[in-house]
Amino acid sequence: MATMRAVDIKEGKGGISNLYINDQTPKPTPTAAQALIKVKAFGLNRMDLLQREGMYPVPPQAPKTLGVEFSGTIEELAGESEQGFKKGDKVFGLAYGGAYAEYIAVSTHMLVHKPEELSWEECAGIPETWITALQAMYLIGEFAPGKSILWHAGASSVSIAGQQLSVANGASATFATTRSDEKCKFCVDELGAKAAYNTKTQKWEEEVSKATDGKGVDIIVDYIGADTFAANLNAAARDGRIVNLAALSGAKLKPEQAQKVDLSNFVRKRIRFEGSSLRSRDEMYQGRLRDQLVDHALPKFKDGSFKVFVEKVFKWEDIQEAHRLMESNQTKGKLICVIE
Fold this sequence. Notes:
By secondary structure, the protein is an alpha/beta fold. It has 12 helices and 15 strands.
């Protein structure tokens, strides 16, 4: 059996110290419409931290190896591979798992040709974050030009992508929240947000109300959960859409948080609150989002209008250090590992 090197987890799950490179990992074989990719770089995502700890519901088709986004070259194609790809092509893409490795087998429906204008590291930071942002905006939030939108965790990778997409695609106003003045400034100066609010020092829902003349915001994209639930309902406009992608502050309301919730907002404002995830979606759904990424974003990456903000690049042998930095919540953008 052919083997390769891949990041593995001692005892199957655990803390950062359990991460190591296993040189006896079985090398995947592409089947159906898959391609075998020799990985150049892979991106880190917060789900990786949860999966490492055994706290993330991994799709049944995913290998145990971490990682869902990568860049690299096509080494081999299966018989039913999508037309337009050939051996040797430079690509980047989204997978159900397995990107922390020298090789990954992934559906060609989730591959994109790498533009020469972008580096391997930049391309490895696009698929999960930008496709998640597009899904939240369009498929769930029903974004259209002229609508206003607010992105929580404004310096996170998905919200960095989302703010750029919102500004470029005609939002009437783009807002963000962060937990530091420095990150708020980043959202306004670098990403084009109309305003960003420090949730530690400002009542952001009141600021949004002022900024929208009391109307509220049409779409809110939230990863925070319990801490923002009540304020989201207050800040949403009539017929507003609240898209929940995670619950970083907790999945259950504490008594003091529950007391602040005004459920009449749902009826008075006709609010729709909808949760979603990307990794659990089927290949056809993800493929439509791949096409949307190519149509909406790829030309703007090529001409420099859209930027992939890479905070730091690590050698993949330093995967523990990379996970440690992600856990610190100090970053503004992507963490990328490269395989020499």
